[in-house]
Amino acid sequence: MAVGRILVVEDSAALAATYADYLARAGHAAELAPTLAAAEAALHERHFDCVLLDIHLPDGEGTTLMAAMRRQGLATPVVVLTAAPSVDAAVAAIRAGAQDYLCKPVSAERLNLTLGHILEQQALRRIVSDYRAMERDRFCDFIGASSAMQIVYKLIENAAQSRAPVFITGESGTGKELAARAIHVMGARRHKPLEALNCAAVPGSLIESEIFGHMRGAFTGAISRYIGAAERAHEGTLFLDELPEMQPEMQSKLLRFTQSGSFRALGAPRETSVDVRFVCATNREPLAAVAEGHLREDLYYRLNVISLHLPPLRERGDDILLIAENMLTRMAAEEKKRFTCIGGDAADMLRSAPWPGNVRELQNVLRRAVVMNDGDVLTADMLPRPAPQAHTRAAIPEMPAAVAAPRPMSTAPSLRENERRHIEKTIDECGGNICAAARRLGVNPSTLHRKIGKWRKDDAAAVQNSQTSGVLRG
Questions:
Q1: Do residue 150 and residue 261 come from a single domain?
Q2: 335: phi then psi, degrees, rounded to nearest 5
Q3: CA angle (315 as vertex; 310, 318 as ends), nearest 5
Q4: What would the pLDDT profile of 447-474 be if each residue is shown by its tens digit?
Q5: For residue 287, what are the domain limits?
Q6: What was the pLDDT predicted at 447?
Q7: Do 351 and 443 have their domain in common?
Q8: At how many degrees (to 10) do helices 13-25 and 108-133 cross?
Q9: Which of 158, 166, 300, 377 is the most exposed place for a label (fewest CB within 10 A)?
């Protein structure tokens, strides 16, 4: 049976002790609150899995506490206790938000059975919530439903709850700054500043001033005081992109800052102490940058407490189509074009391209296609041909017309087979137009592209297995 932390709100000390004893025997942890005020304070300070609530208390009615919980967004289930059993009282309690209703005196068996059911329902809801979270195709400013991105989303959620430094790696255009912003907005510092600085974009002679600031007269041209990114990010997040591009002597000063939380602005008479959370990023391999002398080893290990790697676009499967369709809709509106979806030939081309520039390159390709063309459907001939790259994925071969992929023998087609037949028939009726078929079926075009891609993979694998079996038999 599921166990949990229970808040017992009961003004009778004898009854409260009895309930606590019942709960302890079943493995639950109980905390007692004799008044509404004590209960509200406990709920504000700690998490509880359930509230056992007497309906009549010295400083008010139990329904007042349930109303306060709703206003604060607390979804903690409540079980109401009353010494006056009646249908009207039970209905009133349930309408006020109670999960269940028990009449005094309550036996240990009845109490623990009720709480056990509620806690098991809570556990099931958490499982369903976690499962649904693994299917999300959007997260903060990210778009993508691939398994690689689900891992990224979970890592960001976990990292956001900590104050430990985060080191983000990934190729150019994979969304490192988006990840830094997601970590910031999902954490406790979300209402404080996020200061982002690209170390590669600031000349080496100015990087110290950009981070730590300077006083008036600190150097020629310093006509007024300048507050650096570190001070502006106080109680917030400092994001340093392309960290290995920072000069070695500045890396030494940054290391001291990460250790002490203090720095001295150029020309300042004393040090300034700030509270910042560090998030850093690079498009290099960090250990290679350390070996080559571009990144101090001690600074790397100081900042690499939580590692987050963003996968390149070519490894994200049909995320390419989800991102492309979102971009196409936005760009068509901006450029006042008619595009509504991506054709099958264009989808195949987008899938098989290597995308060395990742999402940034995809954005440029689509922008050019939208500007230079118009129509309802974006086709392959509207897209520029990408140059071959060493890591280009091999395109999935089409099924030969004369070869039918073997299907498992059964007396009736499976639900999956019926779905495929229905979709293929609809596409045929629409003259091969994926977008039109998607509208008729009431689904997103990317859903059809994803299913068609999977069918091709399955069919190709089935043919290969069949040929291998034939060779072995021969």
A1: yes
A2: -95, 0
A3: 110
A4: 777 788 778 777 777 766 666 555 455 5
A5: 138-217+224-311
A6: 76
A7: no
A8: 60
A9: 158
From CA 316, how far away is CA 149, in angstroms rounded? 8
Pick from 113, 131, 149: which residue ends a domain?
131
Q: What is the pLDDT of residues 255-276, one digit of tens each?
A: 999 999 999 999 999 999 999 9
What phi and psi, each to the nearest 5 degrees, are found at residue 352?
-90, -10
DSSP conformational letter for 426: H
- The pair of structure tokens assigned to 57 is 């208390």
Kindly give the residue spans of alpha helices, DSSP state H, lying in 233-373. Answer: 248-260, 286-291, 297-303, 319-335, 344-352, 358-372
Q: What share of the chain is helix, strand, coil (3-state, %, to 5)?
A: 50, 15, 35
CATH of residue 12's domain is 3.40.50.2300
DSSP 246: S
Q: Distances in Å between the alpha carbon of 167 and those of 38, 176, 307, 426?
A: 43, 10, 5, 48
* Residues 248 and 296 grouped into a single domain: yes
What CA–CA distance (Å, rounded) separates 273 from 462? 65
Check whether 392 has a pLDDT greater than 50: no
Check whether 415 has a pLDDT greater than 80: no
* Locus of tokens 């079980």: 79
User: Rounded CA gap, 122 and 49, in Å?
Assistant: 8
Question: Where does a domain end: 290, 311, 332?
Answer: 311
Supply 260's token pair.
Answer: 């002490």
Give yes or no: residues 290 and 143 share one domain.
yes
- Tell me the DSSP string of 342-389: E-HHHHHHHHH---TTHHHHHHHHHHHHHHH--SSEE-GGGSPPPPP-
Domain holding 365: CATH number?
A: 1.10.8.60
Domain count, the chain: 4
pTM beyond 0.70, yes or no:
no
Task: Provide the token pair at 211.
Answer: 């981070």
List the beta bridge partners of residue 277.
Answer: 237
Q: Within its chain, how far is the Cα of 385 from the centroid?
A: 33
CB 197 within 8 A of CB 229: yes
278/65 Cα distance (integer angstroms): 40
> Do residues 214 and 188 make contact, with C-beta atoms less than 8 angstroms apart?
no
> Contact at 8 Å (CB) between 280 and 238?
no
Same domain for 322 and 435, yes or no, is: no
100 has which bridge partners? Answer: 79
* Residue among 314, 323, 374, 339 at smallest CA distance from 170: 314
User: How far is the C-alpha of 192 from the C-alpha of 185, rounded, in Å?
Assistant: 9
